[in-house]
Amino acid sequence: MAPIRLQAFIPCMILGLSLWLLSCTRKDIEFGTTPDNPYTSIEYIDSTTVQLSTVMTDSFSTSGTSYFLLGRYRDAYLGLIKARPFFQLAVPASLPEIPSSAIFDSLTLVLRPNDYYYGDSTRSITIRADELSRPMTLSYNNKLYNTSDVPVKAVSLGSSTVRINPVQMDSVVVRLQDAKGMELFTKLRDHATELSSQENFLGYLYGLALDVSATDESFVVGLNAVQSTLSLRVHYHTTVPYPSPAYVDFGLLNNTYTFNQIIADRSGTGLVSTGNNLTEIAASLTGGRVFEQAGTGLTIKMTFPYLKNLLAGKSYVRLAKAELIVRPYPQSFVQGTSSLPNQLYMTQTDASNLSSGSVLDSIGSDILYADPMLDLVYGENNYYRFNVTAYISELLTSAGSQDNGFMLMHNASAPLNISRLIVGAGSSLPDAQRCRLRLTLITVNTSTN
Fold first, then answer.
1. Contact 421, 300 (CB under 8 A)
2. Three-class HEC string of the chain
3. How far apart are the C-alpha atoms of 195 and 9, rounded to whole Å?
4. Confidence check: pLDDT of 40 > 50
5. pLDDT-based confidence at 33, cuts 50/70/90?
6. Spatial CA neighbour of 186 closest among 210, 159, 204
7. Single pTM value for the model
8. For 231, phi and psi rounded to 5 degrees?
9. Residue 103: Cβ-neighbour burial (10 angstroms; 0-12, 13-18, 19+)
């Protein structure tokens, strides 16, 4: 037998070993593709029913706010919304020494809008200031609510027709009665007892309420509600040795009596309260649409009654991903006038319609927020997207009720506003315009040969 040459054997051994290793190695499974392994597959489902309804809260606290809403807005879907602020004024920390020769000029109310508005802000509105006719008192739980009211005197303190530019945040000045101004000026000059303490002052001037003309239904504007941005101002001038203008401010008194009244006339909308404070209203009763509007107490409830049917006949391994896509109802908003809410978040809920904790992000440390994604070209592909994998996984595997789901609402830290979201829920809507729950499931195929 001829001897085996080592030089020829080694290359053959390396080639054979390489072929053996290659035959024993599986391809990596890439997310988004079907793996080669015949026993597992990735399945995509977006036909899960998302059941939608509107939950209406009759009253909620608005006391102690640092942000006012003022105006009226007639919404094509939600009726007439009226917003009025109520507040008290602070006596100056120290009264000025006004010479007897000084002359009263005028009394004004100085307001400063912030950058929020809803509606057509190019229209002029008439702002009216009313003096309260009785002291303010707290209501249930020592708070004041969107439905609270305080009577005002029959004769208004004054009004002005103005055009507001909310974005530039210019001050708005409302001219008030000279008679009231002269009265205040005299008390300032004389250091009257009514101005000697905050308690005495509130016994003299209970507070003010703002309103707009009944014919103004074009927009609602946001106002800063802190002492430095809202004041009742007494203007006067001294005459010696030469005319010199001066003024004294009675600033906003920031306390729990400061509140916003927000009333919605929903006649004909299908949004009818049961009188139990919380009312769930099916989309079928509101024209196949549901509504979210924080300023009037509307939230959208989302449940998934047939979610567990997905597991029928499947050897379920795990939920790889769950995304909730919320689409605004077609042509229900106009950026710049009736814009969508800037941010939405969700809380967990059940048959009680009470919130039981915010939905958190994938890390589980922060509230999960979604910004609106806008189609600026065609205006059709607009949506909010939420990654709800952990929560849908729990609903799939727990014994929870079919009423378990989410409440969709405004940013938890955002100031009160009347921006609203309308979502279609009718069966006549095209698939591309419906609210969708998109699932990615990893399953085991038990029927393979």
1. yes
2. CCCCCHHHHHHHHHHHHHHHHHHCCCCCCCCCCCCCCCCEEEEEECCCCCEEEEEEECCCECCCCCEEEEEEEEECCCEEEEEEEEEEECCCCCCCCCCCCCEEEEEEEEECEEEEEEECCCCCEEEEEEEECCCCCCCHHHCCECCCCCCECCCCCEEEEECCCCCCCCCEEEECCHHHHHHHHHHHHHCCHHHCCHHHHHHHCCCEEEEECCCCCEEEEEEECCCCCCEEEEEEEECCCCCEEEEEEEEEECCCCCEEEEEEECCCCCCCCCCCCEEEEEHHHCCCEEEEEHHHCEEEEEECCCHHHHHCCCEEEEEEEEEEEECECCCCCECCCECCCCCEEEEEECCCCCCCCECECCCCCCECEECCECCCCCCCCCEEEEECHHHHHHHHHCCCCCCCEEEEEECCCCCCCCCEEEEECCCCCCHHHCCEEEEEEEEECCCCC
3. 110
4. yes
5. very low
6. 204
7. 0.86
8. -155, 150
9. exposed
Using CA atoms of 432, 383, 269, 214 in order, give the dihedral in degrees to the nearest 10. Answer: -140
The residue-averaged pLDDT of 387-413 equals: 87
| Residues 75 and 219 sit within 8 Å (Cβ to Cβ) | no
Domain ranges of the chain: 42-57+273-444, 67-264
Cβ count within 10 A of residue 232: 24
Model confidence band, residue 413 (pLDDT cutoffs 50, 70, 90) = confident
Q: Mean pLDDT across the chain, nearest whole number?
A: 88
Tokens of 443: 């399953």
Does 31 score more than 70 pLDDT? no
Q: Return the residue matching tokens 């996984």.
A: 393
Is a pLDDT exceeding 70 seen at residue 4?
Answer: no
The yes-or-no verdict on residue 188 having pLDDT over 50 is yes
Percent of the chain with pLDDT strictly greater than 70? 89
Percent of the chain with pLDDT strictly greater than 90: 71
Which residue type is seen at 54?
T
**Residue where the block lists tokens 């009253």:** 59
